[in-house]
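All the exercises in this workshop are built on plain-text protein records. Instead of coordinates, the fold is spelled out as a row of discrete tokens. Once this layout is familiar, the rest of the handout is easier to follow. The record below serves as our worked example for the rest of this section.
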Amino acid sequence: MSARIISGIETAKAIREELTVEVANLKQKHGLTPGLVTILVGQDPASESYVAAKNKTAHALGIHSEQVTLAADTSEAELLKIVDTYNRNPAIHGILVQLPLPRHINEARVLFAIDPAKDVDGFHPVNVGKMMLGEPCFLPCTPHGILELLQRSGIETSGAEVVVVGRSNIVGKPIANLMLQKRAGGNATVTVCHTRSRDMHFHTRRADILIVAAGVAKMIKGDQVKDGVVIIDVGVNRIGQAASGKAILAGDVDFDTVVGKAAAITPVPGGVGPMTITMLMKNTLQAAKQAAGID
């Protein structure tokens, strides 16, 4: 058996085509252009790359995109003032502060300062609370992307044994909650494993769907999963550099040893990654519609 590859590139492309049509219709029928601002503090290369990709995608979809780049020594007070300015700007429907922030800035205070109606990352406690309750809200982008990958790949989650490896606020906790919910793409029985789990592989071997977001390269091997498992690998780890200078990446799952056992698997790169930015754009479109009272 060789696993079916769940392509995040192809799925993201299909969703972006849908979003392009929706954005064009919004402009034509309502004269409304969704607006997104990304705020970057410092010169972290990975963050710069992510922000550039977000801006490029927004422009391609017809979404108005602004970028604010600040020096690494920008004070927390200055950053909060900028966030407040965009909270009050009616042309901007989504505000994204790129993480991580410099150590002298309290991330929680900054994220909590964003208007929940413009929190297109889904990190504000108002949106987190609504998500936990199953109420309409902006879903965090990576978990939202995972749901879309599963649903659009025709993978049944209802009644499935889902094991999540990792308990971060960005991926592990929200995806576990979403897959528990009484909704399409949910209704699963969910186990969450983490660094204090006594026998993690006992749980991973039971999984019908295994979602790994631990940040450890190739930690899950072929002998730690069962035949026919569906694997969503969220990890992106730099493990070397090619002669061309391009980074060599690996997921949290040892692809070569599991691909012969899994029924389906996301690759790294080209799996979950492209979905995250796409869901950010979807949330920005949703925010624009909500601001205008459009269903």
